[in-house]
Amino acid sequence: MPYLVPGIFLFLCIPITIGDDVENSPKNIQRHKDYVLISINPKIYPLEVIHSAAYALIDRAHIILDGDPAEEIFVELRPKNKKDMKDIELRFANELLNYAVYYNQSRMNKEVRDAIIQRVFSTNAQTSEPCEVPSGKDAEQPKDYEKIDDPLGIAKPWVPPKEKKVKK
After folding, report:
1. Pairing between β-strand 72-79 and β-strand 36-40 as defined by DSSP bridges
2. The domain that contains 42 carries what CATH number?
């Protein structure tokens, strides 16, 4: 495991490759016995994308993020299942690409999305007048359905009338 000195990584472990030669592995990936250390350029992948990719793998690996967000970000992946050692770095790379595309599409469509939302809120804006509460003489006036000429009685509410209790 690298020892942390404020802002500096000192690698005291010799990388151990799993299934690949050291010459074939990318320069930004260092494979160790129990973990993989990935160096990411934040100019290619913004910090939001790195956080999203790391969060997508949180159920499969313990993830440690470190580094300077302006220059280089280090991601340490420690798989929860040792069988996933090779697979975890590939999954992380796929998630980085996935969230980078999502992030870019979201930025490109921001104006259209905002215009749609503004249109929805502007067309449904309704002005409501304050409701008057009847008081005094107004409270005793008959209800609207009682004023209607309704010979069949279909404009009245379907609530049966309350029976008055007879006092004995």
Report:
1. antiparallel
2. 3.30.1360
